[in-house]
Amino acid sequence: MKNELREFYISRINFGVWNPAQIKQMAAVKVVTPELYDKEGYPVDGGLMDTRMGVVDPGLRCKTCGGRMNECPGHFGYMPLARPVINVLFVNEIYSLLRSTCRNCGRILLDNESLKKYEAELKRVEEEGGIEERLATLSKIISEIKHISKCPHCGTKQDKIKLEKPYTFLINGRRMNSVEIRSWLERIPDSDLKFFGLNPETSRPEWLVLTIFPIPPVTVRPSITLENGEKSEDDLTHKLVDVVRINQRLFENINAGAPEIIVEDLWDLLQYHIATFYNNNLPKLPIARHRSGVPLKTLVDRISSKEGRIRHNLLGKRTNFSARTVISPDPLIEPDEVGVPYEVAMKLTVPQRVTEWNIEYLKEFIKRGPKKYPGANYLIRPDGKKKKITEETKEALLEEIQPGYIVERHLLDGDVVLFNRQPSLHRLSMMAHRVRVLDGLTFRLNPAVCRPYNADFDGDEMNLHVPQTEEARLEAETLMLIPHQMISPRDGLTIIGAIQDAISGCYLLTKRLTKIPKKDAVDLLVNAEVFDIKDVLKKEYVSGKEVFSVLLPKDFDYVGKTKDKDEPELVIKKGKIIKGVMDKANLGQGAGLLLRAFSKKYGAEETLRFMGRVIRLGIAVLMKYGFSIYVSDTDLPEEAKNKIKALLEEAKKDSEELIEKYRKGELEPYPGRTVEETLELLLLNRLNQVRNDAEDVVKETISLEKNNTLLLALSGARGSLLNLIQISSFVGQQALRGKRIDRGYHGRSLSCFEKGDLSPEARGFIKNGFKQGLKPHEFFYAAMTGRDSLMDTALRTPKSGYLYRRLSNALTDLIVRPDGSIRNASGTIVQFSYGGDGIDVAKSFAGSIDVDGIITSVLEGETHD
Amino acid sequence: MTNAQIFEEYSGKLPENLLEEIKLKVPKRISKDKLKKILDLAVEEYEQSLVEPGEAVGLIAAQSIGEPATQMTLNTKHFSGVAEMNVTLGLPRIIEVVDARKTLSTPSMNIYLKPPYDKASKEEVKNFANRIKETHLNEIATQIDVDLADQKVEITLDMDKIKALELKQTVIKKAIKKQIRGLSEKDIVFEKDKIVLKIPESLSKEQEVDPIFKIKEKIKDVVVGGIHNITQVLPVLENGEYVIKTAGSNLKAVLALDFVDPSRTITNNIFEIYDVLGIEAARQAIFNEIYSLIEQQGLNVDGRHIQLISDAMCVSGKISGITRYGIIKSKSSALSRAAFETPIRHLTEAALSGEVDEFKSVNDRVMVNGILPVGTGLVEISMDLTKLNQGGDANEE
Questions:
Q1: Which of A75, A477, A594, B60 could form a disulfide with A586 if both were Cys (CB 3.0 to 4.6 A apart)?
Q2: Contact list, A90 vs chain B (CB under 8 Å)
Q3: Does B13 score more than 90 pLDDT?
Q4: At what angle do helices B3-10 and B32-48 cross, to 10 degrees?
Q5: Read out DSSP for A643-684?
Q6: How many CB atoms lie within 10 A of CB B238?
Q7: What is the ipTM of this complex?
Q8: How far is C-alpha A628 from the chain's CA centre?
Q9: Which of A634-643, A701-710, B373-382 has the lowest mean pLDDT?
Q10: Which residues of B touch A840 (CB under 8 A)?
Q11: Average pLDDT, chain A
């Protein structure tokens, strides 16, 4: 037989039940002995490791196909059973067949008239509702038959059949043996089988009782040779040894005319071994174990569960040409780049085909070899032979190379790779980047793309994959590259935007820095890799806004909002900031409409370049002028302190009043609530309000000019006013499960309070700030809520994970067809046009198109002309 | 040509909701040229943002729900509005909707009143509410006595309450007769403010405990008025009118009430909506539920994703949940079904019915390393090889 590789696609699979003739026909060997190896350690002929069933030893050849290990796919064997045995996987079907057919004539227990009726119904139901409906109707029919006690065809009275799990059938309390069952099943005519959902061509019911046992090929149960030369067999082989051994014993006993009871016992044992060979988790059946007590992993265990064949091997693929390491930030590379260490770049390769035009170029790679970047690791000849490039082979390979060869060269700057961070909940969790080979041992990532990956740099690791074919590279480039992913398919908003330092830097530049010496401005811009800087050269001093404007194209107009309360409007005319500041509302992700407008006018690619410049400029500003937050930022001015103190007192007074009112019984309950619940709701609301009031005080009293912490919060770069208040003045009410803290001891939260104390302090209000330090009981409250939120996260993750798995499994086949409709795998139309209007969210403007933008652009166009 | 005519002209090129939006936002006095320009630009942008064939919109929908789900809270109860009913929210409720569970952890309804009742005062609405609420006999009784000697149960009634609830003697009688077995109409006698139950002898046979005590306990839970299953009612002022919020749900019975506005009243039990109003209403209800749940969490998900999920749950004409008994069971490919849960069962079933797997679904193709029927894999190029071999001129035809 020729060992020639040919490529096939599987176009379909027919499911069915093997019949004895098929088992025999496809088998390469009849297994007759439970022995595995002879004295020399060579597989015994007719044993379970017979080389006609395939080989797992590197030195041997398969006697059936002549293939070596990894060439021979393996061949089945067979073994005739001394007595038939039920296939446990089908007991339920056998049960329903026995109960609904006549024990005498084998016909279904329905008269011809109702059969006709049901036949018509089945046909109709299948046309209308498909297989699912048909199955439902079938089980309805069968459950109706259960109660019929007399065969309408031959008039035989029917006995009561019971199934004693896992595989014993009782007829009128007497045990039926498999021979009986099999002959009963044989009597059922083909024409009646459709009412049980059985297809007689692929699955006759008597085939559910085995007479010939198929032995799986050696290749599916390979043995391992341990270091000491001893062989360790697969669990399946162990089980098969039992089956073959007992079958032989049964044969011998029957032939020797042993008493019925011994035969019965052995028969039962054979049934047990075959049952556990299929499924070792059957209820009411002892689990087959190794001598060490470890349960054997048999067929069902191999297939099912997350670690089983289907989910682990068939749906879970593994890749070569991938790398994984820690990530770290680098705002100086472009957002669509990824910094790759030399170590990685020299291991991962890109196959490049040699042509007469690039042969000299590729020869240089081979000359440098695998150890010198940028070199090459392998050379592939047109016949598929792969040759390793080493110092020794280099010269010979250089001689040999000619067009048609493929060089596996090292990763170069600009190569397209896929970058991924788990959990991959998103299509944005795996995007294409361009390689930038850098020093260091970590992958470098522009912080602007942290958000889609949900990455931070506290030790996160990410994976990198190198596409190996032209098609894959092209798809990655045209579909997965960062510029194509800037709008989230979830809500149609930008998901990639400046964060943290980039925002605070630009905010500082456009807000505080109004007079920058020309020299400094040039420094900043050059640091941001902007070189077209003649605009700032005209004057001695320029404003920050002017510096930022250099980044904007000359024909860019934009009107938008900012987060800043002094300059709530951002106006850009002809590429100049007229008024307004740069903050999260413009540069950040989310609504980031400046970026959207930019992207619409200049394209995604250019937007990304612009963003890269903005980020670098922001960072250059911070580098040049410095930016620190101080502990003293959280020292509130005397005025604010007093105001907040007053707020706290007021809240305390109010809650005391409420409690007093409640004590006196004057509190009016809300409809549908008890007085206690009403009081709790009122108190919680009142105490939560203090924090909001305090935020306003801080906003009013602290000057942004001097307080960098506040600047961070207000520009949207990092932190919030709440953080500032919790540090400087008080932490506030702790809520547990939507209530004030009311658990712990009987009638009190902690033993330092009196029973029934409802005051804020006794119920989770923290009136100290983190800087002053918390009182012991306050600390305890904070710990309570902290732990509760940890628990919540820990419990939620698996739940939402399962939800996601179910959703994706149910919806993967819903795909937009060429006619714009959405259909599933069987072609059923789910939607006629996507979302009713066919708009792709990832190409949309927050789920629609920018009507306002179009109207203003047309109307404004008029005034300009 | 008037502006209306211009809009007419574009009606085939733009979806209706976009046309309406433009109509609304465009200034009233606008020149025809400008209007045309606006519409042309809109068409251009619309056409640019259409989905491409092959887009795996199903998976994107799953991801768009699955990703924010990891950020949702697990806290089941919600107290934010001061006078609200307790309702399951957040992730647990989403799971409930997507599972298409028949029994909810917190069924509830919002009942709106028909004009002129929508202008009713608080007291009047309270009255309506109490008529909706399921009333048990012990709520209208002040005392229940047992007379062992005469084998009688005497129930003293609170006549004011009965009046307020507009309960009639015959209704109460019927309710008792229906809900307590063995009593016939003549055994139930009204005496002024009392109901007297005579226990017929047929009941006292062969029983250890005197049946009279059993009846005394049973009688307390007899539902004499209101609507079955509605255990709590709460009138709440919303947008200037009172809405009755309930715990428990019974859409069919509530819609039948003459003071209820059937066009706005709603329940959170999707199966009831399906039973009463049909599959289209159920589809919309699923959408509304999921959409508002996500919105309440402060998350932002485009409606299209949720629409696709609710459409997928309802294509069969019945509500099927996203579980192994629902949508996944109806998949045409056995391997795909086996890939989800309980693979052995799906494989044995496929074997028995001799199923054929055509490898049309994504999962199947992944299993055999085939080309996925998504995106660029959706198209196939075929070439007539015989013509290629002839080496004819490409421009011949």
A1: A594
A2: 348, 352
A3: no
A4: 20
A5: HHHHHHHHHHHHHHHHHHHHHHT-PPPPTTS-HHHHHHHHHH
A6: 11
A7: 0.88
A8: 40
A9: A701-710
A10: 49-52, 55
A11: 87
Residue range of the domain that includes B25 = 3-48
With contacts defined as CB-CB under 8 Å, which chain B residues touch A839?
46, 49-51, 304
What residues pair up with A341 in beta bridges, in sequence order? Answer: A438
- For A753-779, write each residue's pLDDT tens digit: 988 888 888 888 898 889 989 999 999
pLDDT at residue A371 tops 70: yes
Query: Is cis: bond before B107, omega within 30 of 0?
Result: no
Q: Which of A311, A813, A848 sits opposite B58 (nearest CB)?
A: A813
pLDDT value for A515:
83
Residue A726 in this model has a pLDDT that exceeds 60: yes
Name the token pair of A648: 């706290």
Query: Residue B78: is its pLDDT beyond 50?
Result: no
What tokens were used for A199? 């297809």
pTM for this model (two decimals): 0.87
- Name the class of domain A501-625: mainly alpha
Strand-pair partners of A434? A337, A416
Helix B279-296 × helix B303-314 angle, to 10° = 140
B379 located within any domain? no
* B301 contacts on A by Cβ (under 8 Å): 490-491
Total number of domains in chain B: 2
b/e for A137-174, b at 16 or more Cβ within 10 A? bbeebbeebeebeebbbeeeebeebebeebbbbebeee
Query: Under CATH, which number does the domain A633-790 receive?
Result: 1.10.132.30
Q: Would you place residue B123 in the very low, low, confident or very high pLDDT band (cuts 50, 70, 90)?
A: confident
Question: CB distance from B37 to chain A under 8 Å?
Answer: yes
Q: Which of B225, B251, B280 is the C-terminal boundary of a domain?
A: B225
Contact A849 B348 (CB under 8 A): no
Whether the CB-CB separation of B233 and B246 falls below 8 Å is answered with yes
Q: Give the count of beta carbons closer than 10 Å to the beta carbon of residue B138.
A: 15
Interchain proximity A490–B359, CB inside 8 Å: no
> Could you give the 3-state DSSP secondary structure of residue B212?
helix
Q: Following DSSP, what letter does each residue of A780-816 receive, concatenated?
A: HHHHHHHHHHHHHHHHHHHHHHHHHHHHHHHHTT-EE
Beta bridge partners of A157: A150
pLDDT at B216 over 80: no
Residue B42 lies in a domain: yes
Find all residues with CB under 8 Å of A54, minimum gap 6, and list them: A62, A64, A72, A73, A74, A75, A217, A218, A219
Return the ∠ at Cα A179 (arms to A173 and A185), rounded to 5°. Answer: 85
Torsion sign (Cα): A260, A265, A268, A269: negative
**Cβ separation of A490 and B368 shorter than 8 Å?**
no
Q: Is residue B167 domain-resident?
A: yes
Report the alpha-carbon distance of residue A702 to residue A687 in Å, rounded: 23
Confidence of residue B215 (pLDDT cuts 50, 70, 90): confident
> Cβ contacts of residue B200 below 8 Å, gap of 6+?
B182, B183, B184, B187
Last residue of a domain, one of B225, B243, B265: B225
Domains of chain A, residue spans: 31-76+216-230, 88-209, 234-314, 322-485, 501-625, 633-790, 813-865
* Lookup result for tokens 């030790």: A459
Topology of the domain covering A322-485: Barwin-like endoglucanases (2.40.40)
Question: How distant, in Å, are the alpha carbons of A76, A743, A764, A778, A784 from that of A781?
Answer: 67, 11, 6, 5, 5
Host H or E run for residue A601? helix A593-625
Which pairing describes strands A735-736 and A732-733: parallel, antiparallel, or unpaired? Answer: unpaired
| Tokens 């009107």, residue located | A559
Is-cis flag, bond preceding A423, omega within 30?
A: yes
Residue B209 amino acid letter:
V
In tens, the pLDDT along A801-851 reads 999 999 999 999 999 999 999 998 888 899 999 988 888 888 888 888 888
